[in-house]
Amino acid sequence: MPIEKVGFEDSLKRLVVPDLCVGCGSCVAFCPVKCLEYSDGLPRLVGKCTECGICFQVCPSCGPPTEELENLVFGRERKIGEEFGVHRRVVVAQTTDERIREVCQDGGLVTSLLMNALEEGLIEGAVVSCVSDEEPLKPLPRLVTTVDEAIECAGTRYTYSPNILAVREALDKRLKSLAFVGTPCQIRALRRMEMIPLKRYASALKLLVGLFCSESFTYEGFVIDGIKRKLGLDPKDVKKVNIKGKILITTMEGEVRTLSIKDAKRYSWNCGHCRDFSAELADISAGGVGLQGWTLAIIRTERGEEALKRAEEAGLIKVRPVEDEPKAYKILVNLSKKKRLRG
Ligand SMILES: Cc1cc2nc3c(=O)[nH]c(=O)nc-3n(C[C@H](O)[C@H](O)[C@H](O)COP(=O)(O)OP(=O)(O)OC[C@H]3O[C@@H](n4cnc5c(N)ncnc54)[C@H](O)[C@@H]3O)c2cc1C
What we know:
By secondary structure, the protein is α+β, with helices and mostly antiparallel strands. Helix content is 35%, strand content 21%. A hairpin with a 7-residue loop joins β4 and β5 (139-144). The two termini are 26 Å apart.
């Protein structure tokens, strides 16, 4: 596909100014001349742009239509009735690893997949999101290369983490095989990058794990205003945040405080135009959808199938058919339809 030659300043006019930039960082990560920098959730021009057009081509907020990307990834477009995108099968899974169970968000499937891939030497590293030491609950992109590091990064932060920035770090460190964990917009950006194709990056990414996402929040809004000011909790005293019908904030002492999802809408990250709930272009997508202690997984590609099978064969996860959890499946369908209509 010929690359549309457009410089970053044009991209900026088309995307950032009209408020379409989701702040995923893909333009910054893949700029071949490193003329962009990421700050305050947005890309900024800090060097000389050669107008190669890559920043525009990897942006998840502009074309091509999803069908083209589906053809690239799956060799076909979704069929009527595939409300949450092209897939092979849907299951629910749970980790058997005690350390992961302690810190994971739902069933610990995501971290178990990374653990298995690292232990079997299928990947040299994984790009995930960790928590800042200085600002508790603030997510930061992170490249991990050991199982202990992957476990340290388990759990969900509902504020936006531009994980793609750490893909650049991995490639700069010459890692050749990586897993990536991220939100639907980030998975889309990586598929766009594959489409160009940027071969060095595309060939290193061996497994894309997408996280379901109704929406993401700003740190200043959700953590500082919501958790700190409204609930009077110090972010460093928060053990876990989860969303199950409402926002549940569990403190280190085990107390559970709540925020309503409706109230938290005002803290939304700038991604209101996104139509993808279940990371429809991932190899494997994961979400909690109302489950307690289990992760619902959509297996979409052969790579996703292989990753799940290996983790199961290694005894790292238990897997059950989604038919055991009709309520969770219904939530998946409903949230996918709702987000599709919203976009
Ligand atoms: C912003 C956001 C919104 C979500 N919204 C929904 C929803 O509406 N419905 C639903 O069913 N599920 C949602 N999820 C997914 C859900 O919270 C779990 O991540 C998923 O069920 C996997 O659970 P697990 O126990 O298998 O993952 P774990 O084993 O705990 O691993 C989670 C992985 O996610 C990474 N991660 C954590 N925070 C972020 C972040 N902000 N951005 C990118 N990566 C991150 C971690 O580094 C870790 O690798 C959301 C996730 C995020 C990040």
